[in-house]
Amino acid sequence: MHTHTQRYHFDFEEYNSIHELLPNDAQLLKKAQEVTAMAYAPYSKFHVGAAAILSNGEIITGTNQENASFPAGTCAERSLLTTAATLFPNVPIHTMAISYHNHNGTSNSPISPCGICRQALAEYETRTHQGIRLILGGQEGKVFVIPRATMLLPLVFTAEDMK
Ligand code: THU
């Protein structure tokens, strides 16, 4: 017998297209769409791009970089986090846009970060004491805006848990 049923819930915004976004958000998503061209994805042919604006106004990007030894490859989101932390250590990321293009050109719906990237995003939020807003969209079609990356990771494990 359990004593309570706990419920996890979060709200996010859904837009029918990039054209419905505020200009700065549309610009960031466009950057993420464009930077997919820099992805190195000869194995999956799934080209992912991320673009973020930091709280200091800097814009940085990341792409997936694959490897013949598949697990050695890195996702676009974690490439971006590594770049951000190297160029601007401890500066919060205000918003990160994530896009992709795929083999057959059907990138018309949002993708959301993989589990490992969710964990890495969570660490960044903790480290910088600020949530990371996510804009998710393909090359066309619907766009999701998620207020904080950790909303995608219920019961997240953080340094707090090791105290
Ligand atoms: N990938 C990303 O870069 N980000 C995601 O959110 C999903 C997956 C990459 C990893 C791999 O290079 C390819 O996409 C296929 O999984």
UniProtKB/TrEMBL annotation:
Pfam family, one: dCMP_cyt_deam_1
Gene3D superfamilies: Cytidine Deaminase, domain 2 (3.40.140.10)
GO biological process, one term: nucleobase-containing small molecule metabolic process
GO molecular function, one term: cytidine deaminase activity
Keyword Zinc applies: yes
Source superkingdom: Bacteria
CMP/dCMP-type deaminase domain mapped to chain residues: 23-163
InterPro entries: APOBEC/CMP_deaminase_Zn-bd, CMP_dCMP_dom, Cyt/Deoxycyt_deaminase, Cytidine_deaminase-like
Entry's Gene Ontology cellular component terms: cytosol
Keyword field contains Zinc: yes
Keywords noted in UniProt: Hydrolase, Metal-binding, Zinc
Annotated NCBIfam families: PRK05578.1
Family recorded in the similarity comment: Belongs to the cytidine and deoxycytidylate deaminase family.
PANTHER family in the cross-refs: CYTIDINE DEAMINASE
Protein's UniProt name: Cytidine deaminase
Native source organism of the sequence: Filimonas lacunae
